[in-house]
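Why show two proteins at once? Because comparison is the fastest way to build intuition. When a single record is shown, students tend to memorize it. When two are placed side by side, the eye starts asking what differs. So, the first record is below.
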Amino acid sequence: MSDSKDIDDKATQAGTSKTSKSDGKKPAKDGEQGQNKMTTKMAESLLEMNPALKNEMAGMDKGKAAEILRNLDLSDLLTGMSVGGKNQKDMASYKFWQTQPVPRFDDKEESITEGPIKRIDPAKVSKEPDALVEGFEWSTLDLTNQEELHELYDLLTNHYVEDDNAMFRFNYSRSFLHWALMSPGWKKEWHVGVRASKSKKLVASICGVPTELRVRDKKIKVTEINFLCIHKKLRSKRLTPVLIKEITRRCYLNGIYQAIYTAGVILPTPVSSCRYYHRPLDWLKLYEVGFSPLPPGSTKARQITKNHLPSSTSTPGLRPMESKDIDAVHDLLERYLVKFNLNQAFTREEIEHWLVHKENPSQEQVVWSYVVEDPETHKITDFFSFYNLESSVIQHPKHKNVRAAYLYYYATETAFGEDKKALKERLLMLMNDALILAKKSQFDVFNALTLHDNPMFLEQLKFGAGDGQLHFYIYNYRAAPIPGGVNEKNLPDENKMGGVGVVML
């Protein structure tokens, strides 16, 4: 189970798009041509599942493209989407993933039986963790302890995801970590750390929280894995596989045998792949920090004008979400999410935790949620939300951070009719208002993936394309590929919607 600096490359999120750079995970079977070479079938399968890679090789003869892929060393190919080595990350090796219950590259789609890959016998799960390399020891983090919370914050701040050019780094606030890692049902033992034995310094982490997913018509209990981070000086210690095995063991002991995670690199094997899009809110700042380029033939003034937003929202009845709205939002969101092949099955308690902002002077606001209340019936007809994840700007003389709003969950009653045009118009209005509200809250950029019904509004609302993918994985579960909202040219496509309905932090 995994997601990390090593595996969850949200680097694009950290700061890249067409207006910037990007963000954006898979292994295989030993072929007849040697342990680290691809078979023709695997190469073709890889291209079909990854629009960005397919597009990069689109000009080549199909046989030639497959030949190039076959001759690449898998350990190199699996570190990034690009044949040229872009987005390469230090990550668990191909050989490690061969030992894990994950789908293979060469699984035939037509013969896939959806469900668990490996049946786990709890009695056979080790009660003790594997030994670490000499000089390091396991640690269970207590995030209710401010000192330990700060240790995790410090580790992530200095050693988590960076973009390819080391210009931006995610800056997870303590409030964000509380929000992300202490959701309903959270378990202390799923907040795993590694410490240096002598100094007791925290040098690595991997964390998880429990939730439920629906994969088409099946509901499964999973752990949502995040924050796999290893101190930069220890990347050669091969800690990533050990961390993944340890949190897997701890989840097994709690009766959870599946996990969901995301990555910007290819691992075995994505169930879906989405693309990031970025909408500048403060274009000039994004330009100054190197996130957004100046398009050829344009001017700064023209770009500022292009990205200008109205000063006030236009949806009647729009207001901040309150605790009294929890049941209505829960009902609306549940009905909306079941439209998608892969979605999160929320409880009422999870809706309260993930969507309702509770004022606390000592904590930064993490999530912004808004509802639309019909003025006559007082029924909640729509809602949308976004969350705050800053990125530090590394060694910039003027700007220290980029405030990024990430589109989170939303739903609208308009989605349940047959009129796609009406849905598109409604989403354009709601999401334009989301941009306006994010701008008012001092965000610099608004990020969204091609999941949910997002392809209906991304390009119209002037989102710029990121140059990488975010891949979705389910550990110990085989499922037929799920649409990621993009076509073979890696562009938003309304005909490719209905797949991903889960948002990973």
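Second record. Ask yourself what differs from the first in the token line.
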Amino acid sequence: MANEKMQHTTTGEKIDDVRTKAEELTKEAAETIKEETKKNVESSKKALNSVSGSAENMVKDKPFVSIGCAFVAGVVLAKLLK
């Protein structure tokens, strides 16, 4: 009987140890994912700002071409939506 209690205690302790390790690993994984997501968001923001600036410069340099492209795009969308 004492042996059974000792096994249950040992098993319970093992379960607690596994639970603790799982919690630690989960927290570490969540922190890693959070950091990687922040890096990706910052990288995406920089890329978007770069593309946005390029498009803005193109519109400023060639306003009539930009208006023509917008008109053609509008006509195509109108035809597709009919």
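One difference worth noting in the second protein: The radius of gyration is 30 Å.
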